[in-house]
Structures are given as structure tokens and as C-alpha cells.
Write the C-alpha cells for this entry.
Amino acid sequence: MTALNPIDKVGVQIAEAVGLHNKVTRQQAKERACEMLEMVGIPKERYDEYPNQFSGGMKQRVVIAMALACNPELLIADEPTTALDVTVQAQVLEMMQDLKQRLGTSVIMITHDLGIVAEACDSVAVIYAGEIVEYGGADSIFDNPKHPYTIGLFGSLPRLDSTEKRLKPISGLMADPTNLPPGCKFSDRCPYADGKCREQLPEDREIEKGHFVKCHMMEVDN
């Protein structure tokens, strides 16, 4: 909502990004901006309109068009569907998936929404206190979560096939990033933590092909 300059036309803002990163004329930059607007589902005739004339979902599309205008090999999408309603979220995600295939661009999706992860991601890295605690293919992570934090995340979500009357939140509070424990960063909140967990940092262990977990419990399982 706040990424676009309110006093500049949306097309000009996309063209500016093209001109800054490519050796093109002003007319070529404008043509590329119009092409990108069309690519994200916005008629090129809206090139001269201002951000206030666009809905939240349309603004999101404009920003994505700007990000993809220079054909990046990697797009980092940080909470790309925040503040959008469910229907618009689905439209934006579908568009990003389509553009990823058409342009051959890889995407790193940063989000707290596991529904988006399940729909849009091939591989998943679960991060706690700035550290990857579990990594693997999306199917592997969703079907067989192993780290206590990952299990806690799934346990705190409502499920249509569950008879539980209450959700199971993760106990405790997020670790202070300026005063992290010497061992596992999740040890203060983990129901399985022991002395070793609190003193010694666990190593990554591959529990199945491509599925890694940073947890001392995996030493027992293996």
C-alpha cells in the first residue's frame, strides 16, 4: 500500500525502474512498462493513472510488475499478500505462479501464512530466531514435520478434519534476539528440551533425502 509514490503515475514508476537498470530510451522504458502492466493483468491504458486510483490488489500487481520489469533471475517476495482479502490473495498468487513459469524466475517467498506456503512453494525453510531449524520439500515438511517448532506451528492452526475444541499455541514468548540461549534457540519453549538442548547447539541432520532438521531429538531417532 505504501511502496508506490502517491504523486507519480504508476506507469512512470515502472518505467523509471526499467530506465535505471537498462540502457534504453525513455520511449522504450515506457513500452516495457506498458508490457509489464498487461502481463500482470492491468490494461496499459492505465499507465497515466495514480496509485490512489488503484485498489490494494491492483497496487500489489503494479509493484510485482515493477520488480519483474528487468527480468530478474530471483524475486524476493516478502509477505506479498499482506492486507489483501482471500480472493485477491488467490489472484495475486496465481499471477505470480504464472509469471514465474513464463519468465523463468525463481521466487523466495517470505511469509507466516502456511496456506500460501502450501500453495506456492516447492521447498520450505522454517526459521526461528533467525536460524533455519527445518528444511525440505513442501510435501515432506507438511506431511512429516519433525522440529518441535514446526510441529507447534501446525498445531496452532485450525483444521477442518480435527475434533479438537481448542488450538494448541506454542508456549512462552519469542526469544530475545539480543540475548539468545547458547544452545538450541527454541529450548526455552520446547516441551522436549533437556540440559544438552540448552547448552549445545544442534547440528543439521538429514532424516530423509533433502529433509534436514536442527534438533537433538533427531540423534535419538537416528
